[in-house]
Design a protein that fits this description.
Blueprint (H helix, E strand, L loop, with lengths): L1 E3 L2 E3 L7 E6 L7 H14 L3 E5 L4 H5 L11 E4 L1 H4 L20 E2 L9 H6 L6 E2 L2 H10 L4 E6 L1 H12 L4 E5 L15 H22 L2 E6 L6 H10 L2 E3 L7 H14 L5 E6 L11 E2 L9 E2 L2 H13 L3 E5 L1 H5 L5 H19 L2 E2 L1 E6 L2 E6 L12 H4 E2 L4 E2 L13
Parallel strand pairs: 1-16, 3-4, 3-8, 8-9, 9-17, 10-12, 10-15, 11-12
Antiparallel strand pairs: 1-2, 4-5, 6-7, 13-14, 17-18, 19-20
Helix pairs in contact: 1-12, 7-8
């Protein structure tokens, strides 16, 4: 039996096999989840199959091929023993959306007859039924999906179609609905602090204004907490800023600094009231287009208005590279074991996460609600473009 949305129902799959995949962008800590799932699952008598390249592994695997090594990797204690010592994901990843497979991305082994049965909107095929068929072929009893909003949105789709699964949130944006913490967030802030601290020497040597762009397409958590630990100003998507006020504050910071420099941390999705940050290029499988570099645009505008030399630094890839910090490693291990607790108890269709500072399990994210966003009134000083540091009594130790 399993509990599905609070109700007990018969489990769809029969075999004692757990499938696991990582989708979307890589973050430090994914390998710690994978290893912990394997170690705990084998103690419970389950075997684990790694699905490679995210959802692509389940849309493109050839069910007629025996052990398709392009997309399948049996996971054991032996081949996962040391993976938690490095970043990235040993299963690799992609941004594949099974609901939107373009005609030129359809795998060669899908026959015209089978393709004709799939929902098609003139541009994209819906491969949900293909994913379900492949999961059944692999005899997956429960699927563990690790990802952000996009990856987890399809997890909800599979759950609704009857597939037992548990979701684990990861994203450096820390913006998945329902949880206060996602794997990768602490490492992003730790690494951003180190990078900004190092680059202060260059800013000071040349008496520049520095603009540091980082993650945060729809939510400003990464920029906000980086500013919190570096005592700097930040700009976030939730609150459009006034360019005149920002320039005034940065010039004030520069005058008050003995090294005669200033800096600001900027979410990639931040915008100013008098302008906009355009998007460009083809939309990805989840409908996202790339945003023009707000850091570069802001540096040019500040230099035009002030005549002060500026420096724009894009930190995004540096933040997601390398091994996890201690917080992310602890969270990753705990999320994995909590997921296996749920599997052991027959509970599926849920996500593990953090609520009120405590580990918890909650419903899968509702994609229609969009990203979780910064509580501006509580966490952000809109006059000074800084984090709020006051009124923390009674709040959780981290990220409140």
């Amino acid at each position: 039996m399993r509990i599905l949305g609070g109700k007990k129902e018969e489990v769809m799959a029969t075999g004692k096999t757990i499938g696991i995949l990582t989708g979307g962008g890589d973050v430090p800590g994914l390998n710690s989840v994978i290893k912990s799932v394997v170690y705990r699952a084998t103690e419970m008598g389950w075997r684990v199959i790694g699905i490679r390249k995210g959802w692509e592994g389940l849309t493109h695997m050839n069910p007629a091929a025996e052990n398709d090594q392009t997309y399948l990797r049996p996971l054991t204690r032996e081949n996962t023993r040391t993976i938690d010592r490095t970043g990235g994901t040993v299963l690799h990843t992609s941004r594949t959306n099974p609901k939107r497979i373009a005609k030129d991305k359809v795998p060669a082994h899908i026959s015209p007859a089978e393709l004709e049965k799939l929902p098609f909107d003139g541009k994209y095929y819906d491969f949900t039924s293909v994913v379900l068929r492949n999961l059944q072929k692999l005899e997956i009893g429960c699927l563990i999906t690790i990802g952000g909003d996009d990856t987890l949105s399809f997890s909800s789709r599979l759950h609704a179609a009857g597939m037992p699964l548990i979701a684990i949130p990861k994203t450096m944006d820390n913006d998945v609905q329902g949880t206060e913490y996602c794997i990768g967030f602490s490492t992003a802030i730790t690494r951003a602090k180190e990078l900004i601290t190092r680059q202060r020497t260059t800013l000071g040597s040349h008496e520049r204004i520095g603009i540091f762009r980082m993650f945060g397409r729809d939510a400003g958590f990464t920029a906000l907490y980086t500013a919190y630990v570096t005592s700097t100003r930040c700009l976030i998507p939730e609150y459009p800023f006034e360019m005149d006020r920002l320039v005034k504050l940065l010039l004030e910071d520069k005058r008050n600094n003995l090294s005669n420099y200033a800096l600001v941390v900027v979410s990639e999705g931040a915008i100013w009231k008098e302008g906009q940050v355009d998007e460009y290029g083809e939309a990805d499988a989840y409908g996202h287009r790339k945003k023009v570099d707000i850091g570069h645009a802001l540096a040019e505008e500040i230099r035009r208005r002030t005549g002060v030399e500026t420096m724009s630094s894009d930190l995004t890839y540096d933040l997601r590279s390398g091994d996890p910090d201690a917080v992310d490693q602890m969270v990753a291990i705990t999320f994995a074991n909590t997921a296996l607790d749920l599997v052991r108890d027959g509970v599926t269709g849920r996500m593990v996460g953090v609520r009120n500072g405590c580990y918890a399990e909650m419903p899968l994210p509702d994609a229609s609600r969009g990203a979780r966003r910064v509580d501006v009134a509580r966490l952000y000083n809109t006059e000074r473009y800084r984090p709020n540091y006051a009124a923390k009594l009674g709040t959780p130790l981290f990220f409140s």
